[in-house]
Structures are given as C-alpha cells and as structure tokens.
Write a structure and sequence with these properties.
The protein has helices at about 1-10, 145-155, 160-185, 215-225, 245-260, 295-300, 305-310, 380-385, 400-420, and strands at about 45-50, 50-60, 60-70, 80-85, 90-95, 105-110, 110-120, 130-135, 135-140, 195-200, 235-240, 265-270, 275-280, 285, 300, 315-325, 355-360, 370, 375, 400, 425-430, 435. With about 425 residues, the protein is α+β, with helices and mostly antiparallel strands. The strands form five sheets. Strands 1-2-3-4-5-6-7-8-9 form a nine-stranded antiparallel β-sheet. Helix 8 packs antiparallel against helix 9 (about 400-420). It starts with a helix and ends with a strand.
C-alpha cells in the first residue's frame, strides 16, 4: 500500500507509456503477467519490494520507459522519483523528491543527474539551475524555464491514477491466484513414470526476441505436472541464459538418461523459441540462447542429432512439442539471418526414431507466431488449452495424441486466419498414444 499512498500525496502527472526503445511502441502497454519479473517485457507492472516500490514500464525484466519509483528502505525512506528509465536506471527526464522536501527536476543519465536541471531546496535557499554532471552542478544559469516546462508537462492532472490503481489491483489478483494455485496444485492427470525437459528462449543474446517464449515454457511446465502426470522433480526447465547450448546438451546427455527407466518412462520434450534450417546440409536446428548463426553447426542444436541421442536413452515413448518454425523468421516476422532461405524439409514418420511423436507449430516456410492478446505463442496457447481438457467433444479425462493434435491444429489455424495470418501445425507419430490419462 505504500506506493498507492504515495500516489495520493504527490503529483500525478506522469503518463506511463512505452519508451522509444520498446520493440512494440504503443500508448498503452499490456499488464505484465506472471510472478517472475525477469520475464516482464514490453509491459506495465507493479513491484512492491522490501526496499522500494515501482509502477511503470518494463523491458526484459528491468525498469525501462516511464515509471514511478519510491524508496522504502531506511536510508532513502520517503524519497520518490517519477520520470524516465533505461536499463533499470533513471535515464532521461524526471523529478526526484527527497524526504526532506528538496526536489530535483531535470535530466538524468544512467542514474545520475546529468544535463539541464533545477534543484530546489525546501528551506527557502535559492534553487540551483544549470548544467549538471555526475550529480554536481557544473554550469549555473538563471533560467529554469526548460525544466519548468517539462515539469508542467508531467504534472498534468490526467495522470491515469485510476489506471495505476486498476493495474495494481489486477496484478495483485493475478499473484494471489498464482500463489493459491501453487499451494493447492494437485495432479489432475494420472501419475505416471514420466519425465519432461522444457525449454524456452525469449531474450536471445544475439537474435530478435521470441515473444512470450518464457511464458510458454513456464506454463507448459505447470501443465506437465498437473495434467500429464509428471512429478515436479522430474521436470527440467531451462529458460533464456540458462537455455544456452551447453546447458541444453548437458540436460539431454546426463540429466535425461538419469531419470529414465528403460522401456517404462514416457518422455515429454517442449521447446519454444527460434528455429532455423540450413540449406546446404538440409538440417533443422533449435537455436539456444547463445547461438551464433554464422556458426550454426557449432553453436545451434541439430534436431536430428538430438532426437538420436534421446532415442538412445531407452524411453518407452517420446512426445515432442515444438513452438518454433524453421522458416528463418522470428515470431513477428523478422528475418533471423540476412538472405536466409527457408528449406522444404519434410518431417515424416520414417525420419523419426522409433517411439517418437512430434507436434510442431507450423508447416514448412510458415512462421510460428506469438500473440500479444494471448500472451503466448499461438500454438502453445491452444496446446495448453487442449492438454487441460478444453478440446472439442472431450467426454473423459483421457486424451490421445490424435485428439490433441486435431484440436490444436484447428484452433491455431482458425485464430491465425482471423488475424490475417497462416499457421498450420503438423503432427507425425502415434495418434492412439494416450497423452492424458
């Protein structure tokens, strides 16, 4: 409640909107979803920490754009900043209100007063106006009109106070729901001898981000436990920097075999992120966090080699869900590699190891899209719906792969067409295999 009380007692002139660096610039950002702040991207959220409260814009898990920051720790308790941020620091124009009543209005760079600004004292001492550097006034001037104009811009009475309060209420409701769900989560599907490796790469080191891939992976992990009957300790989750090439390969080489009882264990593999085909060698690759597309063979994950390695672990069955495409495009249609051409590599039953089934997000040369309204990859959104039992005509909890694939394909295709896009999931494998018991 500290942040809201602060709002009532202070200026309400800051319009929260995306900064120029956001990938999806818009006046109204969506509410940040999920409890992991590190995954908040191009959204508006609220944090109440032991040392500070923040309401504003986020990019890649950091304050970025516009927001309000109130310090609650003993050292700075009562200090309050509203203005622009970049990469987690005060950067751009802002207003800093000190607990003793002093106030600075002006420019910041990387957390420090830098540029034109005015420092006003609460004790009546003449204000310091001029050019600042490293928090110190270096050139004093008498004209503070620029700072005053900026202050007036930000102190508009239409601050969207109601939007902030609604945002906070919504986020707290989501968090309460997630907390309650975590406390009361029970396995709805029948428990089985099963293991899952879940991978999501959203914020790549060298590539465009894959929208909502982390949310995809986190939600699939929950569904694997709740509906697919996988014990929590048998789920390996790798996201972003933890989903680098070495960690992924180690997971499949050592962690997976250690959790498999030969001929008895069902294996689920889920991947959300970028994929790419290499024309010269007719191969498909999953792209880990640290991939270098100029060294694809050396830094990517070869699909054929990976499937072969998984098959050697001796599982009863392997089901692979891929929310990726190999068209050379990101989830918003960006080209991953300049002049990269899509390759028509047909996935067929003969190309898969025995006991494998694969449900992938898109056909050859199509894009596997992410969607802002769904906060997921389109394919994953309907995959999760299907696994949780919302497929058409389901009368019992049991569901086979054929039923799941039919539902996901129909819903994904329909949603995409309604948004003037084409995305047709593909399934290869055993349609009769039960996926939910």
């Amino acid at each position: 409640m500290k942040l809201l009380q602060s709002f009532k007692n202070r200026f309400f002139g800051l319009m929260l909107m995306a900064g120029a660096g956001l990938l999806h610039a818009q006046d109204i950002l969506p509410v940040c979803k999920g409890g992991d702040v590190r995954q908040w991207h191009s959204c508006r959220g609220v944090i109440d920490d032991d040392e500070y409260s923040y309401a504003g814009d986020f990019v890649m898990g950091k304050f970025d754009g516009r927001g309000i920051l109130e310090f609650t720790a003993d050292k700075y308790q009562g200090d309050h900043y509203q203005g622009e941020f970049k990469n987690g620091l005060k950067h751009g124009f802002g207003m800093y209100f000190f607990s003793n009543g002093d106030k600075y209005v002006g420019e910041y760079q990387f957390g420090k007063r830098e540029g034109k600004g005015t420092y006003a004292f609460s004790n009546g001492q003449p204000a310091l106006t001029g050019i600042w550097s490293n928090n110190a006034l270096v050139t004093k001037t008498a004209n503070s009109q620029n700072a005053s104009n900026k202050l007036n811009d930000l102190q508009s009475p239409e601050f969207e106070k109601k939007k902030i309060e609604t945002l906070r209420s919504s986020i707290l409701k989501d968090r309460a729901s997630e907390k309650l769900d975590a406390q009361t989560t029970k396995m709805i599907g029948k428990a089985r001898d099963a293991v899952a490796i879940v991978i999501g790469v959203q914020n790549y080191k060298n590539l465009p981000f894959a929208s909502y891939a982390n949310n995809d992976a986190n939600q699939f992990k929950q569904h694997a436990v709740r509906y697919l009957g996988v014990k929590p300790e048998n789920v390996k989750l790798l996201t972003d920097s933890n989903a680098n090439r070495a960690e992924i390969l180690l997971a499949f080489k050592y962690w997976l075999p250690a959790h498999i009882n030969a001929g008895k264990t069902d294996v689920f593999i889920y991947y959300s992120g970028h994929g790419l085909s290499q024309e010269q060698v007719k191969q498909k690759y999953f792209l880990p966090f640290d991939v270098n597309t100029d060294l694809l063979e050396e830094t990517a994950i070869n699909q054929k080699s990976l499937f072969k390695q998984i098959s050697q672990a001796g599982a009863k069955s392997v089901v692979v869900f891929l929310d990726t495409c190999f068209s050379g495009s990101s989830r918003v249609g960006q080209t991953l590699v300049q002049n990269q051409r899509a390759v028509n590599l047909k996935l067929n039953a003969d190309a898969l190891p025995a006991g494998f089934s694969v449900l992938s997000a898109a056909s050859n040369q199509q894009v596997a899209y992410g969607d802002d309204s769904l906060q997921h990859g389109v394919f994953t959104f309907f995959l999760l719906k299907g696994i949780s039992g919302e497929q058409i005509g389901q009368q019992t909890r049991q569901m086979n792969l054929g039923q799941l694939a039919e539902y996901v394909t129909q819903k994904t295709r329909q949603f995409s067409l309604n948004n003037n896009k084409q995305q047709d999931p593909k399934f290869i494998g055993d349609q009769q295999q039960l996926v939910v018991y």
